TrEMBL record:
<dbReference type="GO" id="GO:0046872">
    <property type="term" value="F:metal ion binding"/>
</dbReference>
<keyword id="KW-0482">Metalloprotease</keyword>
<dbReference type="Pfam" id="PF08969">
    <property type="entry name" value="USP8_dimer"/>
</dbReference>
<dbReference type="InterPro" id="IPR044098">
    <property type="entry name" value="STAMBP/STALP-like_MPN"/>
</dbReference>
<dbReference type="GO" id="GO:0016020">
    <property type="term" value="C:membrane"/>
</dbReference>
<comment type="similarity">
    <text>Belongs to the peptidase M67C family.</text>
</comment>
<protein>
    <recommendedName>
        <fullName>MPN domain-containing protein</fullName>
    </recommendedName>
</protein>
<dbReference type="GO" id="GO:0140492">
    <property type="term" value="F:metal-dependent deubiquitinase activity"/>
</dbReference>
<dbReference type="GO" id="GO:0006508">
    <property type="term" value="P:proteolysis"/>
</dbReference>
<dbReference type="InterPro" id="IPR015063">
    <property type="entry name" value="USP8_dimer"/>
</dbReference>
<dbReference type="InterPro" id="IPR037518">
    <property type="entry name" value="MPN"/>
</dbReference>
<dbReference type="GO" id="GO:0005768">
    <property type="term" value="C:endosome"/>
</dbReference>
<feature type="domain" description="MPN">
    <location>
        <begin position="230"/>
        <end position="359"/>
    </location>
</feature>
<keyword id="KW-0862">Zinc</keyword>
<dbReference type="GO" id="GO:0070536">
    <property type="term" value="P:protein K63-linked deubiquitination"/>
</dbReference>
<keyword id="KW-0645">Protease</keyword>
<keyword id="KW-0833">Ubl conjugation pathway</keyword>
Length: 405
């Protein structure tokens, strides 16, 4: 049985902070991504995930983002208007979901309390039966003229009754207290007959693993935060390489955006978007980001990461790549960076920043120029082979925006 989380516990998972050195436009995109995910979870009746995401959205929009130095800039007026409008939606959703979450939590607590009480009542009844059996035996022995019976001998082996050889034992029926067997939970000092509106206490047993424990049995970050499963179409890197072939021949990098849908707590990459861009032998920069955002909104797509070529380098994340990917992973912990190095071996890799130390190191790094060294630590890692990314054979769409007028 998985313990439901109360609104208070869920609220503790919704902490979010704003780095003044990160462009505010990334936070606007992050807010949009939070809201879209929250809507999906709410439609799927996954209220816990929806509650956390809506709470993150309101914390970001109403509390944290106003601290950003660019918050009041004129160019942000439209984005702030949208953000404030959506905060109203988020607050209304939180209010409607809260009673249902409290009901589920209180119902769980009641079941656990009732189970505890039933178990302890059964234990008491069992021990009472044992005691009555010994009493009947004693009565029978007395009827047969036996005069060497004593209760201490008779109750040897009965759980909860102590025995000390040679010790005088005095029994008072009304004062006898049989302890709860050690394998059962301790008997509460008061077991009231529950009135209809009784407020059930937050008792501990029986033992269930804490959510943080059982969640780490699934893919997780280095700090133990759970990562949702992500599906990646098997042929996506081959298709991307064919699209990038002309640039690759000219030793120019090409990049694409990995977008998709969220369903049943699984992130599925369904679309490869090729944005307008400029490239060199070791860099690639997207252009006209508004076109990219508009097409994602039109197709109701979420951003799950990016893919790019290394026509002259091996398969790794350069310092520029690390900073580029950081902006994706700050928005979505599961975000991935795929590197295709067709002339090298290995020629393909799926990566994410470690958390910690990678995400913290890169998000706080303000070094210049673009290519610069970072601490000799495990800043990034593979997202394959037992991590959260799984490849599968299914259809995906390609949207090439470079030809868009």
């Amino acid at each position: 049985m998985i313990k439901p989380r109360s609104p208070t516990e869920l609220g503790e998972q919704a902490t979010i902070s704003v780095d003044p050195n990160i462009p505010i436009r990334l936070y606007f995109r992050s807010a949009d991504l939070l809201l879209k995910q929250a809507r999906v979870y709410k439609l799927e009746k996954d209220l816990e995930h929806a509650y956390v995401l809506y709470m993150k959205y309101t914390n970001l929009g109403l509390t944290e983002l106003p601290k950003h130095p660019s918050y009041k800039n004129a160019e942000n007026k439209k984005s702030l208007k949208t953000l404030n409008k959506n905060c109203l939606e988020a607050l209304e959703s939180l209010e409607t979901m809260k009673p249902a979450l409290e009901k589920a939590y209180n119902s769980y607590i009641k079941k656990i309390y009732d189970a505890r009480k039933a178990e302890q009542d059964a234990s008491i009844a069992q021990q009472t039966t044992l005691w009555q059996s010994q009493q009947q035996k004693h009565s029978a022995d007395m009827s047969n003229g036996s005069d060497d019976w004593n209760l201490q001998d008779a109750l040897k082996g009965v759980v909860g009754v102590g025995y000390n050889e040679g010790q005088q034992f005095t029994y008072h029926a009304q004062q006898q207290q049989i302890d709860t067997p050690p394998h059962l939970p301790p008997k509460p000092s008061n077991l009231p007959i529950l009135p209809p509106k009784y407020q059930y206490p937050a008792i501990k047993g029986p033992h269930f693993p804490q959510r943080s424990k059982w969640m780490t049995e699934k893919p997780s970050t280095e700090r133990g935060e759970p990562l949702r499963k992500m599906l990646l179409p098997e042929g996506i890197h081959a298709k991307f390489l064919s699209i990038a072939q002309k640039n690759t021949n000219n030793k120019i990098e090409t990049c694409g955006i990995l977008a998709g849908t969220l369903k049943n707590n699984v992130l599925k990459i369904t679309t490869l978007i090729i944005p307008k861009q400029t490239g060199t032998s070791d860099t690639c920069t997207t252009e006209n980001e508004e076109d990219l955002f508009d097409i994602q909104d039109k197709h109701d797509l979420l951003t799950f990461g990016w893919i790019h070529t290394h026509p002259t380098q091996s398969c790794f994340l350069s310092s520029v790549d690390l900073h580029t990917h950081c902006s994706y992973q700050l928005m979505l912990p599961e975000a991935i960076a795929i590197v295709c190095a067709p002339a090298q071996s290995p020629n393909f890799g799926i990566f994410r920043l470690t958390d910690p130390p990678g995400l913290d190191i890169i998000s706080n790094c303000k070094k210049a120029p673009a290519f610069h060294p970072h601490p000799d630590l495990p800043i990034y890692t593979s997202a394959e082979n037992g991590s959260h990314v799984t490849t599968a054979d299914y259809y995906f769409e390609v949207l090439d925006l470079r030809d868009k007028k």
